[in-house]
Q: What sequence folds into this?
């Protein structure tokens, strides 16, 4: 177990390092540097700015500084949108908003996706199964912005049932959460269906039935628990999906989260914010995948740890 | 056997009245038919037969065909071009003259949607091919080499796989676009690329850099599995060299897997491009992709919802059709995988 943990955490650290390195060098390859968007600064002003931010140093020195800053939680400062505002402050302000919607969406996807998948598997080839399969196939294929805009047209514009922007009331969570959870929910339902069908066909389930075990106990105690395992592995990528899906959702519904900040930074070409948030997101995703992998190994003792 | 027992066997009371005229000698063709074996059903014919039975996949295939016609031939039939601004026709709702309406600059949205579909399909298909070529070569080399080389190559894949791809795509895409634009406008050699615009080329490059990982894993898995097969052992025992082994035995057996991977890569590439265009970093103006059309449609969605609806519906249909066809193809090409 310890060996696996060390190896896995090591990989995660290396991955994060690679992500930070790629982002840093890619951003620094931009001709003209981060002050390109400024209205033609004088040479002296430009030099002063560069000296202030340490941009006159050789690239490797800047890289070293940036990395050591990252370790201390210093993501640098914003150059374009908010002058000199530390990026970590922007993250601290806006990430909780994204995290709140994101976790509600994750919860909804799991709570709806798993029962739907089970139902689909238990009623295989019946109408319930067919309906769930069609809906989940469509749910995966339709891009988030299409879902978001259609929901907005129907519920906010035509029916005027729900607010179309902001996050002031509980009702305003409904549309963003539906948009965010539709695709992961569909995916979980499909995953759950195939894994449940797989488990139901196994010998120990037949044995349980042959023993005269209650059908309810067989399904929910024996089959369900084992079919949940693939869903756990999907949790890492799913959180990634929900977070990146957040870019679109926060843009459309005008939610003041980190995703909207990220999109704004893209629009205003604010390279340091893009760099900072990319690394921050990368760290979260890598951490989530790490946790999922470890939980996965803990839950299923059949999996060999050093494999 | 006497006559009685023959009659009993045939369940007859008496032999039918047959004379010489009732028989004729077999023709050459009939003799041929008896002596030759039934034609072997090839892998592809078999797969096609299975695919034809899959109604959903066939419907998806027909839809893909219609979309290709819509995207490739459609724009030539339209009286307008995608960037033409028709004076006096600004902000028109769908009508006879403009079935999909017009945008605020007076551009016909039907032809723009057609061009958008063309660009989205182009991005999907070209990206899938790029991803496939890189992934297949990497995966095959890794799988065939084995040992330390394989181990190192797969660790690299692991790390790339753990990267938040979409964020990296956004970062790299944004940065390479401007230099790329200068580059392709600098010389006559890049003339054909100028028509595409730097946005699309940047997307191809980014896909080539980051998205081959999945394909590489699949192909490596397939090669490793095939390497252990008896017929490969037999081929080695019969003295076939490495080239023959790869060309004659390994590659043809990977083709099914390669096609399926490509087919499922197409919708994912289209999806990602739409996502990028929606965030405003996809194709460059005035070129349109379905994602950028949706993004444009979002401004003024309350007054002009049709601007959003048409491209949104088309993109959903494309992704759905490719996904369903890809699934059907996988089942047809590898029936063992079917669940």
A:
């Amino acid at each position: 177990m310890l060996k696996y943990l060390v190896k896995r955490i090591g990989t995660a650290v290396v991955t994060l390092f690679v992500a930070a390195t790629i982002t840093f060098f890619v951003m620094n390859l931009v001709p003209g540097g981060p002050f390109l968007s400024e209205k033609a600064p004088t040479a002296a002003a430009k030099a002063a700015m560069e000296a202030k931010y340490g941009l006159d140093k050789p690239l490797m020195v800047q890289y070293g500084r940036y990395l050591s800053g990252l370790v201390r939680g210093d993501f640098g400062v914003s150059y374009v949108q908010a002058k000199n505002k530390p990026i970590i402050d922007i993250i601290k302000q806006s990430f909780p908003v994204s995290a709140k919607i994101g976790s509600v969406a994750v919860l909804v996807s799991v709570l709806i996706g798993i029962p739907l998948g089970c139902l689909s598997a238990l009623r295989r080839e019946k109408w319930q199964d067919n309906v769930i399969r069609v809906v989940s196939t469509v749910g995966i294929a339709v891009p988030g912005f299409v879902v978001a805009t259609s929901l907005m047209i129907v519920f906010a514009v035509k029916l005027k049932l729900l607010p179309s922007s902001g996050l002031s009331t509980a009702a305003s969570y409904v549309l963003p959460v539906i948009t965010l959870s539709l695709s992961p929910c569909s995916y979980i339902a499909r995953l759950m269906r195939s894994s449940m069908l797989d488990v139901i066909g196994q010998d120990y389930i037949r044995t349980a039935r042959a023993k005269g075990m209650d059908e309810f106990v067989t399904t929910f105690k024996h089959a369900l628990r084992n079919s949940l395992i693939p869903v756990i592995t999907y949790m890492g990528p799913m959180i990634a999906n929900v977070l990146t899906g957040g870019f679109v959702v926060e843009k459309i519904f005008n939610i003041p989260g980190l995703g909207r900040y990220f999109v704004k930074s893209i629009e205003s070409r604010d390279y340091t914010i893009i760099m900072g948030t990319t690394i921050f997101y990368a760290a979260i995703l890598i951490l989530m995948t790490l946790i999922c992998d470890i939980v996965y190994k803990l839950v299923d003792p059949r999996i060999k740890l050093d494999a | 056997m006497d006559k009685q027992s023959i009659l009993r066997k045939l369940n007859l009371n008496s032999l039918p009245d047959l004379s010489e005229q009732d028989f004729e000698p077999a023709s050459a063709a009939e003799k041929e038919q008896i002596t030759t074996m039934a034609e072997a059903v090839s892998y592809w014919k078999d797969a096609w037969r299975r695919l034809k039975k899959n109604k959903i996949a066939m419907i998806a295939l027909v839809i893909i065909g219609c979309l290709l016609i819509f995207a490739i031939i459609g724009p030539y039939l339209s009286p307008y071009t995608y960037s033409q601004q028709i004076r006096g026709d600004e902000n028109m709702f769908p009508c006879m003259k403009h079935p999909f309406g017009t945008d605020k600059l007076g551009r016909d949205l039907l032809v723009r949607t057609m061009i958008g579909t063309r660009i989205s399909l182009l991005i999907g298909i070209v990206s899938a091919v790029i991803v496939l070529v890189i992934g297949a070569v990497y995966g095959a080399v890794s799988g065939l080499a084995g040992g330390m080389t394989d181990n190192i190559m797969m660790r690299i894949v692991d790390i790339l796989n753990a990267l938040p791809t979409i964020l990296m795509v956004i970062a790299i895409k944004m940065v390479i676009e401007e230099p790329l634009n200068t580059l392709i406008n600098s010389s006559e050699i890049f003339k054909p690329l100028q028509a595409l615009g730097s946005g699309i080329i940047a997307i191809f490059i980014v896909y080539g850099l980051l998205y081959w990982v999945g394909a590489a894993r699949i192909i490596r898995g397939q090669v490793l599995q095939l390497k252990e097969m008896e017929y490969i052992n037999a081929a080695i025992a019969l003295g076939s060299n490495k080239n023959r082994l790869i060309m004659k035995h390994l590659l043809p057996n990977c083709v099914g897997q390669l096609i399926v991977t490509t087919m499922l890569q197409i919708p994912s590439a289209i999806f990602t491009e739409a996502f990028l265009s929606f965030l405003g970093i996809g194709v460059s103006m005035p070129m349109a992709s379905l994602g950028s059309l949706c993004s444009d449609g979002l401004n003024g969605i309350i007054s002009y919802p049709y601007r959003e609806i048409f491209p949104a519906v088309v993109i959903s249909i494309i992704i759905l059709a490719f996904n369903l066809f890809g699934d059907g193809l996988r089942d047809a090409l590898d029936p063992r995988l079917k669940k």
Notes: Chain A has a mean pLDDT of 79. Residues 97-269 of chain A form a domain with the MetI-like fold fold (CATH 1.10.3720.10).
